[in-house]
Write a structure and sequence with these properties.
Blueprint (H helix, E strand, L loop, with lengths): L3 E5 L7 H14 L5 E5 L14 H4 L1 H9 L8 E4 L6 H6 L4 E5 L3 H17 L15 E2 L8 E2 L13 H15 L2 E4 L10
Parallel strand pairs: 1-2, 3-4, 4-7
Antiparallel strand pairs: 5-6
Helix pairs in contact: 5-6
C-alpha cells in the first residue's frame, strides 16, 4: 500500500482560514490511511514578505513533523522552491526527490548556472556575456544557440538575491536522489 502525507506550510500574509478549510474538505473525502495532511505550525518570527529562502526557515519545523509521523517515510518529494528541505531528508536518512515542473532544457540551464557559480565563481551568466543584446550561447540541453536576451533575468543579473537563491536551489538538486521532471520525451528529444 502507498500512503502519502502532505506537509502544509503557513505562508506569511496568507489567509490560513482558506487553506485550512480546503484541507479539511479534502481530508473528509479521502481515506485517512492513504492520504493525510499535516498542517505545520506557523513560523515563530515570520517575515513581512515572502523570502526567497522561505523553505530554509521551515527546516526545524519540517524535521520535527517528519520525526512525529507514525512511520518513517520511504521517500520525500519536494517541489523546486522547497528543495532546501533536502537537508532534512539527508539528516533523517530518507531519500529525497525534487519535482521540477518546467521543461528539461530549463533544468539544464538551472544546473549549468549553478555549476558555473561553484566551479568558476560566476554569479549568473552575465560574466560570460559582454553584449547581452547580440550574444548567443551554446548551452547543454538546447539544440540551437540561444540569444542571451531571451534568458530569464534571474540567470543573468549579478548580485541579484534571486540569482543566489537559484544557485542555492541548484546545489540542493544535486544533493537529492533524483529529479522528477514534468516533460515528455517526444517534446524534448534533444535533451
Amino acid at each position: 500500500d502507498i500512503s502519502i502525507t502532505f506537509l502544509v506550510f503557513h505562508v506569511p500574509n496568507d489567509k490560513p482560514t482558506n487553506v485550512t478549510s480546503y484541507i479539511e474538505s479534502q481530508s473528509r473525502q479521502l481515506d485517512p490511511t492513504r492520504i493525510t495532511f499535516v498542517t505545520l505550525p506557523p513560523l515563530v518570527n515570520p517575515c513581512d514578505t515572502c523570502s526567497p529562502y522561505m523553505a530554509d526557515l521551515h527546516l526545524p519545523i519540517v524535521k520535527k513533523a517528519i520525526q512525529g509521523l507514525n512511520k518513517k517515510p520511504a521517500a520525500i518529494i519536494l517541489d523546486t522552491m522547497n528543495s532546501p528541505l533536502t537537508d532534512v531528508a539527508i539528516e533523517l536518512d530518507i531519500p529525497s526527490y525534487i519535482y521540477f515542473p518546467s521543461a528539461v532544457a530549463i533544468l539544464y540551464l538551472h544546473l549549468h548556472v549553478q555549476a558555473l557559480a561553484d566551479e568558476k565563481g560566476l554569479d549568473g551568466l552575465s560574466a560570460l556575456v559582454a553584449d547581452p543584446e547580440n550574444t548567443q550561447l551554446d548551452l547543454p540541453g538546447f539544440r540551437n544557440h540561444l540569444p542571451v536576451k531571451v534568458f530569464p533575468g534571474v540567470f543573468l543579473e549579478k548580485d541579484n538575491e534571486f540569482t543566489s537563491v537559484y544557485i542555492h536551489i541548484g546545489r540542493k538538486f544535486r544533493q537529492s536522489k533524483g529529479i522528477i521532471v514534468h516533460s515528455v520525451m517526444e517534446f524534448e528529444s534533444v535533451t
